[in-house]
Amino acid sequence: FDAKWTNKEAEENRQLANPDLIVGSMNFEGSANYHLPATFMIEDLSDEQFTNQKKVTSDTPFYLGFTSGSTGQAKAFLRSHHSWLASFTAGEKAFDYDKEDTTLATGPLCYSLSLFAALHALHIGASICLLPNFTVEKTMQTIVSRKVSVVHAVPTMLADLATHKAQVKHPITFVSAGAKLLPTVRENVTKVFPNSHIFEYYGASELSF
Questions:
Q1: Contact 171, 183 (CB under 8 A)
Q2: pLDDT per position as a tens digit, 102-120
Q3: What span, in angstroms and rounded, lies between the C-alpha atoms of 45 and 101?
């Protein structure tokens, strides 16, 4: 769930998902604009309570996400373990990154772009940096200090990064999704990051690659 949803949006999406249980967290409760009827809080669980896992297959749904709603009301979609593993394989071939890379997800994990980046990095054994929200200053600081080599972001974030004064000269792969990347933004990004490669894709949340 997105902490920025209104109470009405949260309730509509909760009813749509019809979950068997809701795992809450005190941190989320403190930041959300609404209250969820959590079955239990993650902080109250011990490691032993995670040992009895439900058996899953490759076709078992594991993620229910929502489209951005840019063309109307947001729509829900389901992804299975197999579909994301297939996307991981396609992404490695298309974007040419591996376990030696350090990946940056520029937003919270309620966004599928960030969640995909984080899980893919863990899947291949790469390092992952997570930011709770996007700011140019914090993102640039993380890119430089952690020698980030893969950045997943939406075009508006890349446009903001392109306004930074100093150049970052180590090689970076930018993976852009969520909207059309304008040629002017692409050009400006390469001025700040002269040794970068920029990939753009569309619709991967719902449809995979």
A1: no
A2: 999 988 888 888 888 999 9
A3: 33
Rounded CA separation 17/12 (Å)? 9
Q: How far apart are CA 203 and CA 168, in angstroms?
A: 29
**Based on C-alpha coordinates, what's the Rg of the chain?**
18
Task: List, in order, residues 6 or more apart from 140 with CB less than 8 Å away.
Answer: 161, 164, 166, 168
Based on the number of CB atoms within 10 Å of its own CB, is 8 exposed (0-12), middle (13-18) or buried (19 or more)?
Answer: exposed
Note whether 23 and 49 are within 8 A (CB).
no
- How far from the centroid of its chain's Cα atoms is residue 53's Cα? 25
CA distances from 75 to 72, 139, 202 (A): 9, 30, 16
Beta bridge partners of 77: 65
Dist. CA 135–CA 132, nearest whole Å: 10
pLDDT < 70: residue spans in the chain: 47-54, 68-72, 203-209
> Which 8-state DSSP code applies to residue 163?
T
Contact 159, 183 (CB under 8 A): no
pTM summary value:
0.81
Say what the pLDDT of residue 179 is: 84
The DSSP symbol for 73 reads S
